[in-house]
Amino acid sequence: MTPPDVSTLEDLSLRHETIGSLFPKPATKAEWDRHRLSDEQVAFYEENGYLAGVQILDDLQVEALREELESLMDPSNPKNPLFYEFHTSEAKDPNKILFHALGAWRISPGFHDILWNPAFTVPASQLLGGPVRFWHDQLFCKPARHGGVVAWHQDYSYWTRTKPMAHLTCWIGLDDSTKANGCVHYVPGSHRWPLLPVTGLADDMDAIQTVLTPEQKKQFRAVTPVELKKGQCSFHHPLMVHGSYENRTDIPRRATVINVFRDGVKSDSDQPLLEGVPAIRKGDSMGGRFFPMLGSG
Q1: pLDDT at 4 over 80
Q2: How is 175-234 classified by DSSP, letter by letter?
Q3: How far is CA 234 from the centre of its chain?
Q4: Residue 293, domain member (yes or no)
Q5: Closest CA to 105 of 277, 278, 229
């Protein structure tokens, strides 16, 4: 069967504003300010490398995104060629599924518009200290009873084709996430560690131990599980060591992730920065169609 011509598909990356009503834009300064983090929240992020429990979606928004997610996970969806990456499972074990895809914002209106959600853009610009540009999104889904792990890693170890390191990750739960169904775990303070080698994104939770110093291994004893209600998020630093264990429950653990960087970050490669995206010359600032400005808070 001949794959569809991507150029003939409606691509929402051409739209750099919300296209629906799911995420209304605040009309007053007071409405914008209600999304701002407190000084204490910002200080916690700076000290620990993460901040959890920020409400970013209401129940109606969660339900709308869940509905869109069903079609996005379908390998036969005719628009799926717009994904930068699409993995029905990252895990090698067929009994431990980890669905992972990048690029939902190009396909689905809710996952497009969430990028401009003020409940996200306002705190993100605070934590990055300036205007925020989009890097890429991710979907991470663990089915009931068969959900695989996301192995310990640092996000920036996959992003060194950009510099300087002025990035931020926002992990958003579309289900309640608990220790039992595979919530994210952090190693507090690990955002001060140097960049570690890539040891794999799935299957082996212990692989990272082979590249840690004795002192870093000691710090691993303070691992913090971050349990969230649906619609809540956690923000983390690009060097924060994090991972998540299997889903052992009867409910799925679905999440969407928004990765951003501060305006001014440059390409550090003459190769395409994402699959199917035109290259940005090394040394040039990131921007344009695929890396739009999202806001300045």
Answers
A1: no
A2: S-B-TTTT-EEE-TTGGGSPPPPP--SSS-TTGGGGG--HHHHHHGGG-EEE-B-TTEEE
A3: 10
A4: no
A5: 277
pLDDT of residue 7: 75
The CATH number covering residue 41 comes to: 2.60.120.620
CB atoms within 10 A of CB 275: 11
- Span 24-66, pLDDT tens digits: 999 999 999 999 999 999 999 999 999 999 999 999 999 999 9
What are 47's two structure tokens? Answer: 């000290």
How would you classify residue 84: left for phi > 0, otherwise alpha for psi between -120 and 50, otherwise beta? alpha
The per-residue pLDDT for range 98-136, each reduced to its tens digit, is: 999 999 999 999 999 999 999 999 999 999 999 999 999
Q: What is the pLDDT of residues 241-288, one digit of tens each?
A: 999 999 999 999 999 999 999 999 999 999 999 999 999 999 999 999
| Tokens 């204490």 found at | 40
Count of domains for the chain: 1
Question: 132 lies in a domain?
Answer: yes
User: How far is it, in rounded angstroms, from Cα 118 to Cα 25?
Assistant: 7
Asked if residue 60 is part of any domain, the answer here is: yes
Crossing angle, helix 39-48 and helix 118-128, to 10 degrees?
A: 60
Q: Which domain range does residue 218 map to?
A: 37-75+107-264
* 270 vs 42: CA distance, rounded Å: 35
